[in-house]
Every structure is written in structure tokens, then in C-alpha cells.
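On clarity, I found the account of how folds are encoded harder to follow than it need be. Since the whole study asks how a given chain folds, the encoding of that fold should be made plain. For illustration, here is how one protein appears when written out as sequence plus C-alpha cells:
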Amino acid sequence: MQLTIGILLFDGVEVLDFAGPFEVFSVASRIAAVRGFAAPDPFQVLTVSRDGGRVMARHGLQVLASAAFADHPAIDVLIVPGGVVDAALADPAILAWISQTAGKAQLTASICTGAFLLADAGLLDGRRATTHWEDIDALRARSPQVRVIEDVAFVDEGDIVTSAGISAGIDMSLHLVGRLLGEDAAVQTARQMQYDRRAASTSQR
């Protein structure tokens, strides 16, 4: 069964926060049948923004979202990147969409300051989570209900997974590929990407 990976986009999103996971799941899907670790095309990867269309990512990169909140297919794995999240945190439509979509998804994951969006959407209450090292104290201060973990690449809480900053989202996404398709799939995907994983820097249940 093909799983739909939905990656949230918003103005100010960090480029590698969304592009890293996009690449990991896309590469895994592309090589699955060739390498023999899954049926062809196990993942459909798409980007979603509030209104669809053009989004201005951080550093001026313009990106076209695949779909809008109102017209995307059902999402099995929700990816919430970080970046400059002030405007997104102040947008009730974005927070409501994250909460509603996470409630229907198998897995929800954040990269970097995307953890602030998950926290404000009420998804991290009583859970362990991490974020970019520079934002650890800010997350603790803003969201005291979250058990913030530092010095790890990602934190796996079952249906919620959070990663540290920027490139750590690649490690987390490879970890998710391993959970969904088996560890060999993660190994083969990382090899195809010529990426050295930080799988040892993990906090899991």
C-alpha cells in the first residue's frame, strides 16, 4: 500500500528542513523495487501550504506547493519543517490544520523549530521532543508541558517524532523509512544518497 507523505510549507520555511525529507522519501520510493526492499513506489511525496501555490522559503527560495489545505489527499505521514515560524505560529489556520491532519495520520514528525508548531498545536503535551540546539531554551520556556531533550538527532515517541536542526531532519527521515519499510530500506536509501547517518544519536522509547 502506498503511503502519502505530506510536507507542510509556509513563508520562511527552512529549505533543508523540507527538502531533506522530500529527498529521503522520494529516493526510497524510487529505488525500492530496484533494490528489492519494497514494492514499487511505496511513497507518494507532496508539499502542502495553506493556500497552495507559491511559498517564499528562507533565503529567498520560491517554491510551488503541490496542494492547499482544502484540496490535498489523505496524509499518512505528516512532516512539519521549521525555519522562521513566527508568522506560522500566529496563524490559527496552520495550527488547526496541523492538529487535524496529525489526528488522522499514522505518524507526525517535525524538523528543527517545527517542534514549536507541534507544541502550539497541542501535540507534544507530556511528550519528549527536541529542536535545533539554538532553540532548546526557547522551547522549554514557551512550552513547559513538553519534556525537551537536547544533544540528540531526533526523538521517537511512537506516533510523534521530532528532530534537531536542519540536517537532522535527514537522519530522522531515514529513521522513519526504516520504521515503515525496514532497516535495510533506510541503509539502502542512505547509501544511494551517499549520506552518513547519525542513527546513534537517537532518543527512543
